[in-house]
Structure formats: structure tokens, C-alpha cells
Design brief:
heterodimer, A: mainly alpha, MetI-like fold, 2 domains, 14 helices, flat, B: mainly alpha, elongated, transport (chain A), cell membrane (chain A), MetI-like (chain A), Oligopeptide transport system permease protein (chain A)
């Protein structure tokens, strides 16, 4: 196990360097002088400009600049937003809200997704199964902003079950609708994954043995079938996190949830390039870490992974 | 008993041919039509209503994209009257008007080609890059695999919509269908490459590959003529689904305002512009969303039915 963890950690290093380099490369290709943008319409003092250039290492060659940027990342320094607030400070304010939203969404997609997938798989071919398949197919096909607007209009405005936008302080009851929207695509994927995994497991020999021993379905379904069907779902959660990050950007923007996603959403809308880049960098780093954790969790769950190498 | 000493005839031990399972082998029709994975898959697809429904929708989308003039007499931008702003349906304008007083139906019809062209360009790009990286990594292995797979990991680690947001922020002045397709495609290929790589790893140890090596076929020809055609099936499936994802990505970027400029007619742009009047005129937002979702649904449905048809294991799961 220790060897696997070490191997996986070493593998993460080139990926980390590569992704940050790619992002920085894209920024370097950005036309226009980032400093001139700070001054707006005014013509800046050349001496001041030179001093700022020196301060932000803009006179150095591209590769040296990248190293400074990388150094900043390791010190959790992601630069300053357009309003002059350090990105880390904005993160500290907005991150708890996003975490709350993400946990709500994850809870929903896992509990409801696994349950519905399980029932559908056990009763394959029935009416419940057929409707679960149709509904999940539709949910997968709806782009997240469409789901968000449909939810906002029908559940929020027309029926009035939820507040269409989130109020100050982002109380939990206001976050339910955005969390449902955020979870929708992953929920549908989990239903389908669990379903096919359950169908595959329930025909295996050990399940037949359990039935022939005289165990009841009440015990076989949750203990023998469900537990052995969950591994693909766990792996899915890792890749799903990327969907969740992009989804959070759109959902938080539409529902006005004061989280990391909305900050990125507004920076994109206003065309604040450097802020967008800082937040995308942070999100990619989070994504990398989460995927690393999921891989390790996967190794804990499935011994075949940890002894493979 | 006189017969007890008599040896049984050989026929006593061998069952007549008609009664053995060997009949099954002997009765293979050699003069019948040859069959392969694709013929079997087509036979399976023909019987699926999902296949026909999705094909008809996709065909309709393609025809609308190529000949928008057949479906509406209204030019999408010329006859916009501000007095019609957010008005409901009327004679000749079955879906009502946008905030600028343009015909919603005409804009949806003329926006089709944008979505479809982005989808197709991205798909061609993803297919090409995915095959190049996946095939070489899987077939040659060793350091080639290590380099190509790590490169894939790096591109895979940046969610492609976020990457496209950064690229599109860079190209703020020069956005068109080609730039946005490139921005999406350049980060979307690793999934395809991974699928192909693992499929090739499975196929390359098959007997026919060993046989080809034994008779001295060049490595590259083995890859091109034997391994690739036998491992392409899952790539076709993921490509169909990635066409749907590309259409969603374009709409999302346009919706966020970093996609196509507002002068280009695109479903994403229309949805983004309609969001401010969601309360007063929900239909302006709902109809383009419907067109978008239906197109995406059709491609996903097609991908899934083709996957089921190509994979006997999935067939059993139905």
C-alpha cells in the first residue's frame, strides 16, 4: 500500500507541473499588457510602469516568469483580483459556501442515485427501471444551465417551492435548489452506473450461493449485491468532480450563490482575464488533489489495484 | 448368452453423427453471407426504435443546418421590431419574439448550423488527436507510452470547459467557430485516447497479430491494418457522445459570454441573452434550450444504442 501511495504521488508531480505550465503558457499568449489594464483609461507614469514591471518580474524571460508563478502557487499565492483583493482572501470567504453546496449535491446524487440505480437494477425491465432510464437519459442531455433555468423558473418562480435566488448568508434551505441542479447530471450517471453494476453483480456465483444458502433478499441485496457494485461508482466520483466544478461555476452564477464559482462566473462575464486564470488554476489544483484522494481510496477498496504494480 | 463374448462393433462406442453436438460444427454454412462485428451490429441496430428516433432527429438537425431557408421565411435578424419585444406567438411567428423583437423560431433555425459545425469540427479534432495519441501509446508501449500517456494526463487534468474559458479569454478579439472549436478540442481528446489505448492493449496480444508478425508484416502496417480496425468500435461510441459534449460546451461558453460573439447566431448566445427576462418571457429562453437539449439527446441516444449493439456484454445487460 505504501508503495502504491508513493508511486501515485510521484506520478502526480509531472501532471502538476504540466497543468500549471499549460495554464501559464495560455496566459502568456494573452495579447495586451496586463499592467496597462490596471490603469484603465489613464496613461501611467513610465517610471511607475517600469517599477511595477520589475515588481511582477515582467522583464524576465517566459520560463523564469513561470518559475516565479510556480513558486507563488507553492506559497498559496495566487495573485490579486481586479478589485485589488488577494485571491487567497476571496477564496477564504467564498470557499465555505461552495463546500456546503458541493456536499449537499454529493449527498443527494449519492443517496438518491445509488438507491434508484439499485432498485432499477434489481427490477430490471420493469416500469420503474424503464422510467429511471428515460429520466436519467434526459437529465444527462440537459446542459447544466438549461437545468438551472428550468429549475429556477418552474420550481422557483412558477410553483414557488424554493426561492429563485439565494439570499444573504446563503442559508441551507436556499441552497437546496442549486444543489439539486448541480447534482442532476452526476445523479443520472450514478443511477446508470449503479444499475449496470448491480445487474452484473446479481448474476455472479456468490450471489447464487447466498440465495441457495437460504439467505433472504433483505440481506443479500444490501450486503452482497450493493457493496460489490459500488466500486465503479467510487471511481466515477473522481472524474465527476470536474463536472461538479464546471457545474458550480454556472449554477452559482445563475442562483447567485456567493461561492467560488460565482466569483469565477462574474470574472468571466466582466472579462477579467488574470482573475479568471487565478481561479481556474485553483480549481485545477483542487481537482488534482481530489483525484489523487479518490485513487488512493480506490486502492483501499480494491486490493487488485494496490498489488497490480 | 452367446453374444456376451462377441466384441461390440466400433459403432457401439461412437454415436451416430446426427445425434452429437458435432452436427452444429458440421452444419456451418460455408456458402452463407459472411458476418462480422459491424454486420451484426447493424442487424441489431435495425430493430431498435431508439436508433431510428435518434437518427431521424439527427437527420432533421443536419437538414435544418444546411438549408435553414426551407424551414422559415423570416430572416432571423432583418425584421426585428422593438415594438414586438418579448411578444408572444402570433401569425407566422409561432414561438414569439426575443427582447430585441426578433423571431425566436427563425433564430433557432439559423442557430442550428453553428452548434452542428462546432460539434463536427471538435469531433474531427478529438478523433484525430485521440487516435494518434491512443494508438501509438497503446501499440508501441515503453517510453512512447509513458510520454504520450503523461501528456494525456496533463490535458485530462484540466476540465476542458475551464481550459476553453481561459483560451477564449485570451482570444477576446477574434472569436469565431474555428477558434472556439480549437479551444474545446485541444483539451477534450484524452478521454478518447485512453479508451483506444486500453482497447489496443487488449487486442494487440491476439493470435492474428502474432500471425501477422510471424509472416513479417511491418509493425506500422500491423497497427494500421489489423489492430486499429479491431479496436475502433469503442472509439466510435465515445466520439458520438463527444459530439454531444462539444455542442454543450459551445453553448455553455457562449452562454458565459466567452463563446461566439453576439452577432453570431448560436443557441448558447440566445439562452444567455434571454436569461434577464426569464420572469417576463420564459418562452424566449425555453425554446432554444429545447432545441439544444433535443439535439444533444439525439447524439447521446445514438451513441448509447450503437454501444449496446457493438458490445455483446452490454446487450445482455438490457
Amino acid at each position: 500500500m505504501a508503495r502504491y501511495i508513493l508511486f501515485r504521488l510521484l506520478q502526480a508531480i509531472p501532471v502538476l507541473l504540466g497543468t500549471t505550465f499549460l495554464i501559464y503558457f495560455m496566459v502568456f499568449a494573452m495579447p495586451g499588457d496586463p499592467l496597462l489594464a490596471l490603469f484603465g483609461d489613464k496613461t501611467p507614469n513610465p517610471a511607475l510602469l517600469e517599477q511595477l514591471r520589475e515588481q511582477y518580474h515582467l522583464n524576465e524571460p517566459f520560463f523564469v516568469q513561470y518559475l516565479y508563478y510556480l513558486g507563488g502557487i507553492f506559497r498559496f499565492d495566487f495573485g490579486v483580483s481586479y478589485s485589488g483583493q488577494p485571491v487567497t482572501e476571496i477564496l477564504a470567504q467564498t470557499f465555505p459556501v461552495t463546500i456546503r453546496l458541493a456536499i449537499l449535491a454529493l449527498l443527494f446524487e449519492m443517496i438518491a442515485g445509488i438507491l434508484i440505480g439499485l432498485v432499477s437494477g434489481i427490477r430490471k425491465g420493469g416500469i420503474f427501471d424503464a422510467s429511471a432510464l428515460v429520466v436519467s437519459l434526459i437529465l444527462i442531455s440537459l446542459p447544466i444551465f438549461v437545468t438551472a433555468f428550468l429549475g429556477q423558473y418552474f420550481l422557483g418562480i412558477a410553483l414557488g417551492w424554493f426561492r429563485p435566488t439565494v439570499g444573504a448568508g446563503a442559508p441551507i434551505q436556499d441552497l437546496i435548489l442549486p444543489a439539486l441542479v448541480l447534482a442532476s447530471i452526476s445523479f443520472a450517471q450514478i443511477v446508470r452506473l449503479t444499475r449496470s453494476s448491480v445487474i452484473e453483480t446479481k448474476n455472479l456465483d456468490f450471489v447464487r450461493t447466498a440465495y441457495s444458502k437460504g439467505l433472504s433478499s433483505k440481506r443479500i441485496v444490501p450486503v452482497h449485491i450493493l457493496r460489490n457494485s459500488l466500486i465503479p461508482v467510487v471511481t466515477y466520483l473522481g472524474t465527476d468532480f470536474g463536472v461538479l466544478l464546471v457545474g458550480a461555476t454556472v449554477t452559482e452564477g445563475i442562483f447567485n450563490v456567493p461561492g467560488v464559482g460565482r466569483t469565477l462566473y462574474q470574472a468571466i462575464l466582466k472579462g477579467e482575464g488574470p482573475t479568471v486564470v487565478s481561479f481556474v488554476t485553483v480549481m485545477v489544483l483542487i481537482y488534482l488533489v481530489v483525484n489523487l484522494l479518490v485513487d488512493l481510496l480506490y486502492a483501499v477498496l480494491d486490493p487488485r489495484i494496490r498489488y497490480a504494480k | 448368452m452367446p453374444n456376451s463374448t462377441q466384441k461390440p462393433s466400433p459403432g457401439h462406442f461412437v454415436a451416430p453423427l446426427e445425434e452429437t453436438p458435432l452436427v452444429a460444427i458440421d452444419s456451418v454454412k460455408t456458402d452463407g453471407k459472411p458476418s462480422n462485428l459491424w454486420i451484426d451490429a447493424w442487424r441489431d441496430l435495425r430493430g431498435r426504435p431508439m436508433f431510428w428516433i435518434s437518427s431521424v432527429i439527427i437527420l432533421l438537425v443536419v437538414v435544418v443546418a444546411l438549408f435553414p431557408g426551407l424551414f422559415t421565411q423570416t430572416a432571423p435578424n432583418d425584421n426585428c421590431e422593438l415594438s414586438n419585444s418579448n411578444a408572444g406567438p402570433s401569425e407566422g411567428h409561432i414561438l414569439g419574439f426575443t427582447r430585441q423583437g426578433c423571431d425566436v423560431f427563425a433564430r433557432i433555425i439559423y442557430g442550428t448550423s453553428t452548434s452542428l459545425s462546432v460539434g463536427i469540427i471538435v469531433t474531427v479534432l478529438v478523433f484525430t488527436l485521440g487516435i494518434l495519441f491512443g494508438a501509438f501509446a497503446g501499440f508501441y508501449g515503453g517510453w512512447i507510452d509513458a510520454v504520450l500517456s503523461r501528456a494525456g494526463d496533463i490535458f485530462f487534468s484540466i476540465p476542458y470547459i475551464l481550459a476553453a474559458v481561459v483560451i477564449m479569454s485570451v482570444f477576446s478579439s477574434n472569436r469565431n467557430v474555428w477558434v472556439i472549436s480549437l479551444a474545446i478540442g485541444i483539451f477534450a481528446w484524452p478521454a478518447t485516447a485512453r479508451v483506444l489505448r486500453s482497447e489496443i492493449l487488449r487486442v494487440k496480444n491476439a493470435d492474428y497479430v502474432t500471425a501477422a508478425t510471424a509472416i513479417g508484416v511491418k509493425r506500422f502496417n500491423i497497427l494500421w491494418k489489423h489492430v486499429l480496425p479491431n479496436s475502433i468500435a469503442p472509439v466510435i461510441v465515445i466520439t458520438t457522445i463527444s459530439l454531444a459534449s462539444a455542442i454543450v460546451a459551445e453553448a455553455t461558453l457562449s452562454f458565459l459570454g466567452v463563446g461566439l460573439p453576439s452577432s453570431v447566431m448560436s443557441w448558447g448566445n440566445d439562452i444567455g441573452q434571454a436569461q434577464t427576462t426569464l420572469r417576463q418571457a420564459p418562452q424566449v429562453l425555453i425554446y432554444p434550450s429545447l432545441a439544444l437539449s433535443l439535439t444533444v439527446l439525439a447524439f447521446i441516444m445514438l451513441g448509447e444504442t450503437v454501444r449496446d449493439a457493438l458490445d455483446p456484454k452490454a446487450r445482455a445487460l438490457r
